[in-house]
Amino acid sequence: GSDGRPDILPRLAGIADGAPAAVAGRRIIVVDAGHGGNDPGAPGVAGVPEKKITLDVAREAARQLEATGRYHALLTRDRDVYIGLRDRVAFARHHKADLFVSLHADSIKNRRVRGATVYTLSETASDAEAADLAARENKADILAGLDLDVEAPEVANILIDLAQRETMNYSARFANYLLPELKDRVVLRRNSHRFAGFVVLKAPDVPSVLVEMGYMSNRDDARFLGSARGRKEIAAALVAAVDRYFRAVEREQF
To answer: Structure pTM?
Structure first.
C-alpha cells in the first residue's frame, strides 16, 4: 500500500545485517520539519513560530546534504502545511530512507533554559521532561484534527520487533555522532542524548532521531535559531554527523 507497510517483510532481510539500501549510489536522508499549517508549534519570544524555524533549518540541511553529492535529501514538508506524525514515518519508509531526522524547537516556562537535545526512541523515557515532551509532541495529530482511529493495526510480528531493536541501535549510534558535531557549533543541554516514545521515531526499519535544536522560550536560542548563521551551523553539524555515521556503517559491511 501507499503507506509503505506491506513491503516491510521483504526488506527485513537487508536490515538484519544493518545494510541500508543505497539508491543510485546516494544515501537517502529524510529531513522532517516539525509542526506546520494549523499546528504552529512553540511560539517564539522573537515572534517567529517553531513551524517556520523548523522549515527554514530543514531546507538549509537538505541544501547542504545535496551539495555533497553523496546524499539525496527529501523533506516531509517543503511548505507551511501540517502532516500527520504517522504520515511522516510512512513517507520515510516509502522512500526507503537510510536516516530520518525530525527537527523541532521546544518551549518551556523557565526562560533561562537553553540548548539542543537529541532524542531517540525508547519504550521508557530517560526522564520526566523527555516523557512530557514526547506526550506533547505525540498529541500534535489530535490538535490538528486528524482521526487516529483509522490507523491500520501494526503488524504484530516478532521479526519486526527484532528489526526495530536493530534500528534503535543505529538511531542511538547516529545520535552519538551528531552530539559532538552540534557541541562544536551550538549550546547543548546537560544530558543531551535523551530517550522517549515519540511516534515520529517509530519506523521499524529507518534509523531516526528527533533534534530539539534549542528553546523558543529563550531569547538567545530563539535569536540563534532564527538567524542564517544558526541555520547553517545546525545543517553543517547534521552533514558532518551523517558523514561520520555512514563511514562507520560502511566499514562494518564486507
So the answer is: 0.85
